[in-house]
Amino acid sequence: MARVLTPRAEDFPRWYQDLIAKAKLADNGPVRGTMVIRPAGYAIWERMQAEMDARIKAAGAENAYFPLFIPESYLKREAEHVEGFSPELAVVTHGGGKQLAEPVVVRPTSETVIGEFMAKWIDSYRDLPLLLNQWANVVRWELRPRIFLRTSEFLWQEGHTAHATRDDARAYARRILHEAYEDLMVNVLGIPVVVGLKTARERFAGATATYTCEGMMGDGKALQMGTSHELGQNFAKAFDISYSSAEGGREHAWTTSWGTSTRMLGGLIMCHGDDNGLRVPPKLAPVQAYVMVVKDGEGTGGPAEAARKLCDALRDAGVRVGLDDRTDTAFGRRAVDAELRGYPVRVEVGPRDLAAGNAVVVRRTDGSKAPTPVADVVDAVLAALDADQRALHDQALEFRRSRTVEVSTLAEAIEASATGWAMVPWSAVGVKGEGEANAQGVTVRCLLRADGSVPDTEDEPDLVAILARAY
């Protein structure tokens, strides 16, 4: 395999940029901080969307769509919210050749505009819970953009719900956290995330609690993969989201919001990628088996025909299949491209192997190549897809364990964060220590109970903090 990418161990950020370019996943847009997602990258995002959308709907939420432009006055109604987003806002002051009577903000997130309509649509306790989700783009003006990780415009889903009680809101925020986010990330993306509570310093602007899914990347840094927020009654009071209770009184609702984005694509690359390119978990892969004609033979019944028959058989078995019969392009170049794209399994069909009744099954996860009787290829592919889904998760989990250390002091935690994650008693860090860590580029990624479960507040006793450098 010719060297195409900068080795990860040599320069991880350069490797990341190389991979995105060489695998044709995305490109920089014409405005600084924007990105163009190319078909290969968008196909993976579509699979993430479909899997996430199914989980969100299973939790009872319905999809809707709200405007891209939000009156500036809406954001100002919730003081903490506008303060948290002010540095990132893109504001439109002119339209149609005239100055606008009121500036409008390009959607950074939709709590405010959705809150306005929740107030309009909710009247009685019978209207609750109201469970909404939208798939959209948002704009947050980034000073240090990086494709998929931090861009001025990105794609995401954002859920917004209103409930009659705090307990119901909390239960729903956690349901999404575990049943939609954690389940997708662990069982489809193969990324073993740690699920915990954000500190007050790190939580979403205007929230009363933020829950997070944190993944370890291939350089030992953390990536926030998705968050779910309890908003208390802050937005309900700001936008008068209220309802008539069964007892006849007027009560404010309790709201939540939650989101995941194209940042998950960056996490996929950095968690599973290697020096040859992407490694896409089979359950996620748009193309699970890539059938390649090495070289065609003479007449009928040659490799090209055999490859097409294999594609049909694999498709009938429920496998997402791609066919590469471009024999006018050197096979080595095509094989490098397939490695870069991270297709889980390649089935190589050439005259020599076919004469012996075989095709070669190549597994992207471990690079193994196995001559396989053509009649057994479908079973071999199905077995490889199942095994390699587990293998990618298990490799990532073992890497995280090897780069996570338990320490007892803040100083030790900051030192350990140079190469991975540190687990330290929250009581040894505290609000003051968190500020000291931040000054050195280290953040508290989340808080956990001693048994690994998610706490309700950061004031619970005996909590464990995970400290790391992060994207």
UniProtKB/TrEMBL annotation:
The keyword Protein biosynthesis applies. GO terms for biological process: prolyl-tRNA aminoacylation. One of its GO terms (molecular function) is proline-tRNA ligase activity. It comes from the Bacteria. It is found in: Cytoplasm. InterPro entries: aa-tRNA-synt_IIb, aa-tRNA-synth_II, aa-tRNA-synth_II/BPL/LPL, Anticodon-bd, Anticodon-bd_dom_sf, Pro-tRNA-ligase_IIa, Pro-tRNA-ligase_IIa_arc-type, Pro-tRNA_ligase_II_C. Keywords: Aminoacyl-tRNA synthetase, ATP-binding, Cytoplasm, Ligase, Nucleotide-binding, Protein biosynthesis. GO terms for cellular component: aminoacyl-tRNA synthetase multienzyme complex; cytoplasm. SUPFAM superfamilies: Class II aaRS ABD-related, Class II aaRS and biotin synthetases. Residues 32-281 form the Aminoacyl-transfer RNA synthetases class-II family profile domain. It catalyses: tRNA(Pro) + L-proline + ATP = L-prolyl-tRNA(Pro) + AMP + diphosphate. Its EC number is 6.1.1.15. Belongs to the class-II aminoacyl-tRNA synthetase family. ProS type 3 subfamily. Homodimer. Catalyzes the attachment of proline to tRNA(Pro) in a two-step reaction: proline is first activated by ATP to form Pro-AMP and then transferred to the acceptor end of tRNA(Pro). Consists of three domains: the N-terminal catalytic domain, the anticodon-binding domain and the C-terminal extension. This is Proline--tRNA ligase. It comes from Micromonospora robiginosa. The gene is proS.
